[in-house]
Specification:
- This protein is of the alpha+beta class.
- It folds into two domains: about 5-235, Nucleotidyltransferase, domain 5 (2-Layer Sandwich); about 245-430 and about 465-495, 2-Layer Sandwich (Nucleotidyltransferase, domain 5), CATH 3.30.420.40.
- Helices cover about 40% and strands about 20% of the residues.
- It has 19 helices and 22 strands.
- The strands form six sheets. Strands 18-19-17-16-20-21-22 form a seven-stranded mixed sheet, with helices on both faces.
- The longest helix is centred in the C-terminal third of the chain and has 27 residues, at about 370-395.
- The chain is globular, with a radius of gyration of 22 Å.
Length: about 500
């Protein structure tokens, strides 16, 4: 039997509508529509163009209808933490703030005046990041919250605008730092401490919940009458992990969802919420079937993306493949950076920031774009090693293989660097893990696949994984010693 599904994957740089076709135990993906997601800069704020994104989504639905294929269902996934506020009429209250908006610093200060960090972590098991929903809401104006009738994180908000059903899917809710993985519900303690109205927070539903049919007016406009809207894995990383092509017999494996951000972790049956996990700043998010994604959200190819943007503004245009090629030809281990330094999270002139940290640490400043990108990629690989060792410390298990999925899995140079740094085999693919996971969860929800085990087998049948074997252990061990020195502050205390 051949079945078709639609996935809307909303990313921080672009959105895409993907048609998935399941036939003969294999999944084929076809891009129907792609559109840019450009943050809007206004005086004193950074926010998202939600009306523009929703218009593009409807364009994609119309194009999907023109393919004349029987589409079983639709599901939306997105990045976490950002949210839409809806008024009593179901209209979005603008603006929808961007997680990089500067207000988050004030939100941290306001939240900590009401409740301390150990309590927040004990309730949620979520790592500290100023961009978390909890801190964003602590920076909200009381007037906006009074006016709001419902709060939905991005993908759930889009599903609501399509179906009219306002539910919070569990994997996305778990990114907010307002969800308790122990009780599997919103944390009443945190809502009360932060004076957040409980009425804003909708029912939490598991991944794969059927929400309803596409609203009549959008069905008429698009030509997709009768389309079932599902809350798949609404969080993009949860969807990507669902598509990790591990076999049922595999154990002691970790994953990196590699893209703008790198999310490195393991899949567990229950959360780990203890002092070690809090001190190492790990997070417990929910995956498909109520599984737990113990992971750390760290900076990823964002640094390279920002370098490319800065060079383009200076008149030097590079494709990503060209930058990777230049990096491969540059001398190894000339300089390293600490990618977790807060300066690398904010946008703006990334080459200058790299040069600043190199000068501050007594290293050679990268001489050209190839050297700069090599510096970033080697440093990311070493950060993956550092983070993987922390995972092993928390879980008490030694990892034997590392799966890299997402767009970053196409970067063969970074994949090889990662295998060399962690000294275990790295298996790369699928690059379209988020869309694949989104669609496969839809297939499970509709009874077209029996379980996640079979869904992952579909992924393995649908692509040829690329394996990178570790090399040159001595050089990478030496580089790791240098890299670790970047994590000492001026008082010689570990950070």
């Amino acid at each position: 039997m051949t079945t078709h599904y639609l996935a809307c994957d909303l990313g921080a740089e672009s959105g895409r509508l993907i048609l998935g076709t399941l036939a003969d135990g294999k999944l084929a993906l076809e891009e129907v529509h792609r559109f840019a997601n450009v943050p809007v800069e206004a005086p004193g704020m950074l926010h998202w163009d939600i009306p523009g994104l929703f218009t593009e989504l409807k364009v994609g639905l119309k194009r999907a209808a023109q393919l004349r294929r029987p589409i079983s269902s639709f599901g939306c996934d997105s990045w976490g933490v950002d949210y839409l506020l809806f008024d009593a009429n179901g209209e979005v209250i603008p603006p929808t703030y961007h997680y990089r908006d500067s207000r988050t610093a004030a939100g941290v200060k306001h939240a900590y005046a009401k409740i301390d960090w150990p309590t927040i972590f004990a309730e949620t098991g979520i790592q500290f990041m100023p961009l978390n929903t909890l801190f964003q809401l602590a920076a909200e104006s009381p007037e906006r919250l009074d006016r709001a009738h419902r709060l939905l994180l991005i993908a759930d908000g889009f599903n609501f605008m399509l179906s009219g059903v306002a539910d919070a899917e569990e994997s996305l809710a778990s990114t907010s730092q307002l969800y308790s993985p122990r009780t599997r519900s919103w944390s009443g303690r945190l809502l009360q401490a932060l004076d957040l109205p409980a009425r804003l927070f909708p029912p939490i539903v598991p991944s794969g919940t059927k929400l309803g049919l596409l609203r009549d007016e959008i069905a008429r406009e698009s030509g997709l009458a009768g389309l079932e809207i599902l809350a798949t894995c609404s969080h993009d990383t949860a969807a990507a992990v669902a598509a990790v092509p591990t076999s049922s017999t595999a154990s002691h494996w970790a994953y990196i969802s590699s893209g703008t951000w790198s999310l490195l972790g393991v899949q567990l049956p229950v959360p780990i919420i203890n002092d070690t996990c809090r001190e190492l700043n790990f997070t417990n998010e929910i995956g498909y079937g109520g599984s737990v994604r113990l992971l750390k959200n760290i900076v990823g190819l964002w640094i390279v993306q920002e370098c490319r943007r800065a060079w383009a503004q200076a008149g030097l245009e590079f494709e990503y493949a060209a930058l990777t090629d230049l990096a491969g030809k540059a001398p190894p281990f000339v300089s390293l950076i600490n990618p977790t330094d807060p300066r690398f999270i904010a946008p703006g002139d990334m080459p200058r920031k790299i040069a600043e940290q190199c000068r501050e640490t007594g290293q050679t400043v990268p001489a050209d774009p190839g050297a700069a990108v090599r510096c970033v990629l080697e440093s990311l690989a070493l950060l993956y090693r550092r983070t993987l060792r922390q995972v092993e410390r928390i879980t008490g298990s030694r990892m034997r293989r590392l799966h890299i999925v997402g767009g970053g899995s196409r970067n063969a140079l970074l994949n090889q660097f990662t295998a060399d740094a962690v000294q275990i085999p790295v298996l790369a693919g699928p690059a379209e893990a988020t869309a694949a996971g989104n669609i496969l969860v839809q297939a499970i929800a509709l009874g077209h696949l029996p379980s996640l085990r079979e869904a992952r087998e579909v992924v393995r049948n649908s692509l040829e994984l690329v394996t990178y074997e570790p090399q040159d252990a001595a050089s990478w061990n030496d580089a790791y010693g240098r890299f670790e020195n970047l994590f000492w502050d001026n008082s010689c205390a570990r950070i």
